[in-house]
Amino acid sequence: MAPQVFAYLAAGLGAGLVILGAAFGIGKLAAAAMEAAGRQPEAIGKIQTAMIISAALIEGVTFFALAICILLALK
After folding, report:
1. Selected residue with higher pLDDT from 59 and 75
2. Fewest beta carbons within 10 Å, which of 2, 6, 14, 49?
3. Who has greater pLDDT, 17 or 6?
4. 62 and 22 Cβ atoms separated by less than 8 Å
């Protein structure tokens, strides 16, 4: 087999793991935010702001990792 096949396989597996990790992280983040909002309804604005910032950071790291997977596949 050509070495390029293994690069494609590694990039595909890496991308899949990145997406699963991001989905798990954002899911836990949203669950914790909903629980916090249920406990302290008066703090919903602060909780929502922190949740959106955290989700954006998770997405940023996800896009960076996916770009690395694509670069490894095209190498």
Report:
1. 59
2. 2
3. 17
4. yes
Q: Does the predicted TM-score (pTM) go above 0.90?
A: no
| Residue labelled with tokens 């997405």 | 59
Q: What is the CATH number of domain 3-74?
A: 1.20.20.10
Long-range (24+ apart) CB contacts under 8 A made by 67-74 are 68/14, 69/10, 69/11, 69/12, 69/14, 69/15, 69/18, 70/11, 70/15, 72/7, 72/10, 72/11, 72/14, 73/7, 73/8, 73/10, 73/11, 73/12
Instruction: List the chain domain ranges.
Output: 3-74
Residue reference for tokens 């990039």: 11
- pLDDT for 23-69, tens place per residue? 999 999 999 999 999 999 999 999 999 999 999 999 999 999 999 99
